[in-house]
């Protein structure tokens, strides 16, 4: 299973670079950094060799394709994030024909994931946390999409997005999702266990009691 970092923060990316396979960004994440999107993407692609998603903000297919072409000039590993709309899927088809990889974002149903795959998306990003927020089971959607993709040997990779806790990552791995994109505070939590801390403390205390020459 691949782990992406869901951030536009370069310090977070440098901190976890040794563990991650890619990065996803979005307009909210870049707004939080208060810096130019293209500059940030260039810096991120200098650190991470795997896929780095950059999100288009146009609402029409032509505009999205134009943005996608511009983003893809930044680095070879840029993936164009396209929202799950009718116009978005037209853009995905066009970008795919141009050899530009895409990540269909804001996916909240299995039918949307089916359409994204039919349009030729490289990746699809179902948002599990936002579904949980409205009282649905986000992880159930991941299972449905994986089943459908499996039925038809669809090559589109599922990126579990909008992750809110380490359990989302664990459950993604159990059901066989290809990728989870994780905020750094959740990735940090995945390293930790209170018994690990307790164990280290105990071993260090015992080590102090070992006779040394
Ligand atoms: C993923 O591609 C999205 O950028 C992200 O996971 C959205 O997460 P949120 O629902 O916490 O904003």
Which keywords apply here?
17% strand, binds erythose-4-phosphate, 11 helices, single chain, 8 strands, eight-stranded parallel barrel, TIM Barrel, alpha/beta, 213 residues
Describe, in short, the structure shown.
With 213 residues, the protein is an alpha/beta fold. It contains eleven helices and eight strands.
Give a topology summary:
Layout: E1 2-6, H1 10-16, E2 22-24, H2 27-33, H3 37-47, E3 52-55, H4 61-72, E4 78-83, H5 86-97, E5 102-107, H6 110-119, E6 123-126, H7 128-133, H8 138-151, E7 157-160, H9 166-175, E8 179-182, H10 184-191, H11 194-209
Parallel strand pairs: 1-2, 1-8, 2-3, 3-4, 4-5, 5-6, 6-7, 7-8
The structure holds erythose-4-phosphate.
Erythose-4-phosphate binds at residues 6, 24, 26, 105, 125, 127, 129-130, 161-162, 181.
Could you walk me through the main structural features you see in this protein, from its secondary elements to its overall organization?
This protein is an alpha/beta fold and 213 residues long. It has helices spanning 10-16, 27-33, 37-47, 61-72, 86-97, 110-119, 128-133, 138-151, 166-175, 184-191, 194-209; strands spanning 2-6, 22-24, 52-55, 78-83, 102-107, 123-126, 157-160, 179-182. An eight-stranded parallel beta barrel has the order 1-2-3-4-5-6-7-8, surrounded by seven helices. Helix 4 (61-72) crosses helix 5 and helix 6 crosses helix 8. The model has no long low-confidence stretch (mean pLDDT 98). It binds erythose-4-phosphate.
